[in-house]
Write a structure and sequence with these properties.
With 135 residues, this protein is mostly helical. It contains six helices and no strands. It has helices at residues 2-27, 31-53, 56-76, 78-83, 85-99, 112-131. It is elongated, with a radius of gyration of 22 Å.
Length: 135
């Protein structure tokens, strides 16, 4: 009886280990795209907060981070970027929006254009997510 319990427990442990390895193998190819989109969302929220608070230096920092991440999208989604013109257009439009933005005014609390800039970035992201939303 005890032998059967030990064998059963060993089977459960081995099955749990195998399941964990398989789950990590399945999830591994999706880590980079998820990371890029998660970071874009995080910095979008920080840009929104900074633009509402009039923190010009933070607005510039977050815009620079979003610009860097926008360039990462093509690497995170290589097949989609290469094969789907619509996705490429959304990605490039976000890059154009970011490139066309003037620098925020350096005076603290006087970034009136920051809210408009955030809206343009947010609209660009939302347009893409209406078509390419994983959820």
């Amino acid at each position: 009886m005890i032998k059967y319990i030990i064998v059963l427990l060993a089977g459960v442990v081995a099955g749990g280990f195998a399941g964990n390895v398989i789950a990590h193998r399945i999830a591994a190819p999706h880590q980079h795209p998820r990371a890029v989109m998660t970071l874009l969302g995080f910095h979008r929220e920080r840009l929104d907060a900074a633009s509402q608070a009039g923190q010009c230096a933070t607005v510039e920092t977050e815009r620079a981070r979003i610009t860097s991440l926008q360039q990462e999208i093509a690497l995170a989604f290589p097949l989609t970027y290469k094969q789907e013109e619509r996705f490429r257009k959304f990605t490039d439009t976000l890059g154009d929006v970011l490139a066309a933005m003037p620098a925020a005014t350096p005076a603290p609390g006087s970034c009136p254009e920051a809210a408009g800039q955030f809206k343009k970035i947010n609209d660009s992201c939302d347009d893409c997510h209406k078509v390419y939303d994983p959820e």
